[in-house]
């Protein structure tokens, strides 16, 4: 390993870091380390280096061959900040390999950059799990980065435009040789929607919608009007609540009549007083107040959002550039709209990466540097989402030696899966913590809470006793890919829970826990190639019950990120209604 690209998502929210080399990729959001949702109000890297350093050391890697590193941020660093960092990180007379480096973002201080310097000079080893076939990989493969103390590493820095980082993450993770790249979010530097034509590692801008016409910001404002907090990423709740409301024609028309899809651009004509006008439509006495009123607003706006997106994407397809679409940006997390987009816009394939929002830009910036700038060849393949840290089993075993849990180690994976499947079939709710953490906001079988989808009351039980969240919040089905057609109309492989598809009528009664009120499910397609252990577990459950589906929700409680450390995992287990948790080979149960 002689060269390294460091990608940093340095937005105000959803900060993340990625490392890319010839040997592999590592990517992780800072919120996992600080255990603060979206890492809001934290010092980003400053709060994250120590636990991240420990997590990466666990995999036994060093960096002895590192000679050069490139830092790619997703927002430009000001020159004044650059001068401060240069003076801070290049002390006169340094003879111990101290790095002269430039990194950063709008909200960073020099301490943060110092700590980034630590990793690049050998005090902060890191690992890159495989990114499918995009980069070389193999069972147990590790990557070693180290810097001799007397040989400084050559560092260069640059900023990748925000929407270009989104687009790069979207196009470099699916198996597309050429495609259309669509980015929709709150805003980049100047735009809220961008369309690119991608081929031969070249991004050609096709169209751009200015930030003043932002569907993402509009969704955020409606999130607030529904009683939620958009800064905490609670657009999720609007999507979940929408299924419990009904479409109110006046509310739908309020947004629709103020929106024009003009070719590849969306134009909003809301006016300065639009919020007051909308509130007048919502005021109590004209229709139901309270939660039901919010649900009706959520449903009416979600329908409008999906219709607008479908109209736009149809126009994108009409360009004739490609029948493949790579879609990124925060709006790409809207799984209900995504499911409709697949069925009716004309694209043959549509790919959303596992982390399409701002955290994914860490990886997008690094991949853009490697492939679009340096022209390092890639083998197109769908990327693994399992790019993060592993659980420290030594820490876990120390905790178990003091905790009042019953724990047994089961090294035979089939026995582990059979035992877990049997407990699930008996109605138990199980934590399942395996391998590397998922990159992105959704648990995909490595940091999951699992349950039997056949029980009518399971959603209410999980929301009330485990997640401590609103009763209307939906749960997702993880399904064996080979059974997808049997359960879903218009089935398409959905590896990252990025789309909601309609269940077939004849199977809805088999898995009521994961059927949304509108008859859809935000599915995860599970294959043996992507996650052999999770596939084996669902297969064991199918053998015992005849159902190739498990309830899959993230291993956390409301308001907290997905659990990261062994201590996080055991704390959630001890303080919720989980019956057992499986961490690596350890099967752990509460004592009676």
How is this structure best summarized?
With 592 residues, the chain is α/β, with parallel strands linked by helices. It is built from 18 helices and 22 strands. The chain is 33% helix and 19% strand.
The level of helicity is: 25-40%
Provide mean pLDDT, rounded: 83
In angstroms, what separates the terminal alpha carbons?
A: 51 Å
Low-pLDDT runs of 5+ residues are 43-49, 58-64, 80-150
Q: Strand pairing plus helix content: what structural class?
A: alpha/beta
CATH topology of the largest domain: DHBP synthase
Query: Rg, please?
Result: 24 Å
CATH architecture of the largest domain: Alpha-Beta Complex
Shape: globular
Query: Helical element count?
Result: 18
Largest sheet: 8 strands, mixed
- Output the strand order for the largest sheet: 13-22-21-14-15-20-16-19
- Give the number of domains: 3
SSE arrangement:
Blueprint: E1 3-9, E2 16-21, E3 24-29, H1 31-34, H2 45-57, E4 68-73, H3 79-89, H4 110-120, E5 154-159, H5 162-171, E6 178-184, E7 191-199, E8 202-210, H6 215-225, H7 235-242, H8 249-256, E9 259-262, E10 265-268, H9 274-282, H10 290-317, E11 324-328, H11 335-344, E12 349-351, H12 361-373, H13 393-402, E13 405-409, H14 413-425, E14 430-433, E15 447-451, H15 458-466, E16 476-480, H16 484-487, E17 500-502, E18 520-522, E19 524-526, H17 532-545, E20 549-554, H18 566-574, E21 580-583, E22 586-590
Parallel strand pairs: 1-4, 4-5, 6-11, 11-12, 14-21, 16-19
Antiparallel strand pairs: 1-2, 2-3, 6-7, 7-8, 9-10, 13-22, 14-15, 15-20, 16-20, 17-18, 21-22
Helix pairs in contact: 2-4, 3-4, 5-12, 6-10, 7-10, 8-10, 10-11, 14-17
């Amino acid at each position: 390993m002689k060269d390294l690209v460091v990608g940093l998502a340095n937005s105000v929210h959803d900060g993340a870091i990625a490392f890319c080399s010839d040997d592999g990729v590592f990517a992780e959001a800072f919120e996992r380390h600080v255990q603060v949702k979206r890492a809001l109000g934290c010092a980003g890297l400053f709060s994250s280096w120590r636990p991240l350093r420990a997590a990466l050391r666990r995999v036994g890697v060093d960096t002895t061959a590192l000679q050069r590193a490139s830092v790619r941020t997703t927002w430009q660093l000001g020159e004044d900040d650059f001068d401060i960092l240069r003076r801070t990180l290049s002390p006169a007379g340094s003879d111990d390999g101290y790095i002269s480096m430039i990194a950063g973002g709008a909200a960073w201080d020099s301490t943060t950059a110092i700590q980034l310097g630590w990793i690049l000079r050998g005090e902060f080893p890191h690992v890159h799990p495989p990114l499918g076939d995009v980069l070389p990989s193999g069972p147990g493969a590790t990557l070693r980065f180290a810097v001799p103390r007397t040989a400084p590493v050559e560092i260069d820095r640059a900023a990748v435009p925000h929407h270009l980082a989104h687009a790069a993450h979207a196009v470099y993770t699916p198996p597309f040789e050429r495609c259309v790249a669509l980015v929709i979010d709150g805003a980049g530097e100047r735009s809220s929607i961008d369309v690119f034509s991608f081929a031969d590692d070249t991004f050609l801008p096709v169209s751009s919608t200015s930030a003043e016409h932002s569907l993402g910001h509009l969704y955020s404002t409606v999130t607030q009007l529904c009683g939620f907090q958009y800064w905490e990423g609670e657009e999720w709740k609007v999507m979940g609540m929408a299924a419990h409301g009904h479409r109110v024609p006046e509310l739908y028309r309020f947004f629709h009549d103020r929106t024009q899809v003009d070719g590849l651009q969306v134009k909003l004509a809301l006016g300065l007083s639009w919020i007051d006008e909308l509130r007048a439509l919502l005021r109590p006495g004209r229709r139901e107040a309270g939660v039901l009123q919010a649900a009706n607003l959520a449903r009416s706006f979600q329908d409008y959002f999906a219709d607008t997106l479908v109209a736009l994407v149809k126009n994108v397809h009409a360009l004739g550039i490609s029948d493949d679409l790579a879609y990124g940006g925060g709006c790409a997390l809207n799984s209900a709209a995504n499911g409709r987009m697949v069925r009716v816009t004309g694209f043959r394939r549509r790919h959303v990466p596992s982390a399409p929002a701002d955290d994914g830009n860490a990886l997008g910036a690094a991949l853009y540097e490697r492939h679009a700038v340096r022209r390092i060849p890639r083998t197109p393949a769908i990327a693994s989402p399992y790019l993060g840290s592993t659980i420290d089993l030594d820490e876990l075993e120390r905790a178990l030696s003091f905790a009042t849990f019953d724990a047994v180690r089961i090294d035979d994976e089939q026995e582990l899966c059979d035992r877990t499947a049997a407990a699930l079939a008996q109605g138990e709710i199980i934590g399942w913590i395996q391998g590397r953490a998922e990159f992105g906001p959704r648990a995909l079988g490595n940091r999951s809470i699992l349950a039997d989808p056949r029980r009518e009351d399971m959603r209410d039980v999980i929301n009330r006793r485990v997640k401590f969240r609103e009763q209307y919040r939906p749960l997702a089905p993880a399904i064996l890919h080979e059974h997808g057609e049997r359960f879903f109309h218009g089935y398409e492989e959905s590896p990252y829970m990025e789309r909601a598809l309609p269940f077939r009528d004849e199977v809805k009664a088999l898995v009521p826990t994961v059927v949304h009120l509108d008859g859809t499910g935000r599915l995860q397609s599970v294959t043996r190639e992507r996650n052999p252990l999770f596939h084996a577990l669902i297969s064991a459950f199918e053998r015992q019950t005849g159902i190739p589906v498990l309830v899959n929700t993230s291993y956390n409680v409301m308001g907290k990120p997905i659990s990261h450390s062994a201590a996080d995992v055991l704390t959630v287990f001890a303080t919720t209604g989980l019956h057992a948790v499986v961490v690596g080979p350890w099967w752990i149960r509460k004592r009676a």
